[in-house]
Amino acid sequence: MPDVQFPITAARHEFFTDDARLKRIHEKVIAGERLDESDGLALYRTADMLALGWLANYVRERMHGNVAYFNVNRHINHTNVCVAACRLCAFGRKKGTEGAYTMALEEVFESSASGYTEAVTEFHIVGGLHPDLPLQYFLDMLSGLKQRFPQVHLKGFTMVEISFFAKLNKMTIREVLLKLKEAGLDSMPGGGAEIFSERVRAIICDHKIDGSEWLEVAREAHLLGIKSNATMLYGHIEGDEDRVDHLLKLRALQDETKGFQTFIGLSFHPDHTVLQHLPWTTGVLDLKQIAVARLMLDNFPHIKAYWQMLTPKIAQIALRFGADDIDGTVVEEKIYHDAGATTPQGLSRQDLIRLIEAAGRVPVERDTLYRAVTRTENSVTVAV
Ligand code: V47
Q1: Given a cut of 90, is residue 287 above it in pLDDT?
Q2: Domains defined along the chain, listed by start
């Protein structure tokens, strides 16, 4: 149970369900008891969406009251060249093939400054596993960005990229992380986790590090004081058991390190991937995933409803189903748009505020570490 207790608007409405399993889970939630594997399965399998939403909203409001977070960020996808050929991905290209690109560092610096007028507080940097880019490219990228944009938080590189840098440069994970941190890396995004189940991973991303290695890199980062996020890719060929297993593994590592800030469920986008015969996720599954994550990940401070993945409309409703964050302005995104996303490339700060207010929540602009950001005409201040 959190130290600070917020008024819980969910408690104004009586909880009601015919689902006997949810009645028992309700008792546990009210008592602040941890949910177990069988609870997780029951939550995924219930048809009572409103009762599920009630429970997740209760926990969300106990932790964050009526606040909903967003940030002003920009994504940087420096290369789509990738030695892996994951069936889930429409973004990666083999070196020298049509559509493959790699930005020179000057291009990275130029594009970081373009396309958006409001002061960005975060660069989110993710790319493919390029076989020829030396670690120095990334060190120069980070130090060059810090030099040009000293106030911007650099959130970069998935656990998969870090592991790849280590192998390519014959270094340990710790050595790579220390070098990147020294060059300006502030925290890490949560990508590449996909789903930890070996059975599913062998089909959707067999060229990627396995789940235990992903967790090991996250552990190393957290031990070095580098916070990260965590993701789960859902809505492809995984089952409820795989999803619950994934969440429990994240929860166990978080008990140990407390280094995760936010969990983000990534809904699978099938277009132009090898798995394009699979259907898109439904709105019900998207909201269910948000709610189950909030209830199972009791030690994660934040649950993000990433508007680009979910659409702004579902992300808005998710703020009543357990989410307390809708991510940021983004500006330009390639990974999901290559896989058929029809959402806009970016939203303005004002758009995000409008979405949150229309959901009856109080918008708070945050930096990457969830400190409130205040803006005046000429400056941006972060409350420490
Ligand atoms: O690692 C790739 C996923 C991730 C597809 O930490 C796909 O704040 C759906 O990690 N359909 C990269 N997903 C994005 C990511 C992320 C995004 C937003 C916020 C944060 C954060 C992190 O996108 C990849 C992979 O898991 N992905 N292809 C696809 N076809």
Answers
A1: yes
A2: 62-382 (3.20.20.70)
Give the chain's largest Cα–Cα span: 60
The model carries a pTM of: 0.95
DSSP per-residue codes, 111-179:
HHHSS--SPPSEEEE-----TT--HHHHHHHHHHHHHH-TTSEEEE--HHHHHHHHHHTT--HHHHHHH
Which of 71, 335, 336, 366 best tests ligand 1's pocket when mutated (most atoms within 8 Å of CB)? 335
Q: Which residue's structure tokens are 């429990």?
A: 248
Write the pLDDT tens digit of every residue in 205-237.
998 999 999 999 999 999 999 999 999 999 999
Confidence of residue 122 (pLDDT cuts 50, 70, 90): very high
The 10 Å Cβ neighbour count of residue 104 is: 10
Q: Which atom of ligand 1 is nearest to the CA of 267?
A: 9
Q: Is the pLDDT of residue 245 over 70?
A: yes
Quote the CA–CA distance of 182 and 142 in Å, as a whole number: 9
CB 121 within 8 A of CB 73: yes
Looking up tokens 């008792």, which residue turns up? 27
Of 231, 274, 336, best ligand 1 pocket probe by most atoms within 8 Å of the beta carbon: 231
Task: Enumerate residues lining ligand 1, CB below 6 A.
Answer: 88-90, 126, 158, 189-192, 194, 229, 231, 233, 264, 266, 268-269, 273, 306, 327, 335-336, 339
CA of 191 to the centre of ligand 1 (A): 5
Q: How far is the CA of 249 from the centre of ligand 1 (A)?
A: 19
pLDDT at residue 50 greater than cutoff 90: yes
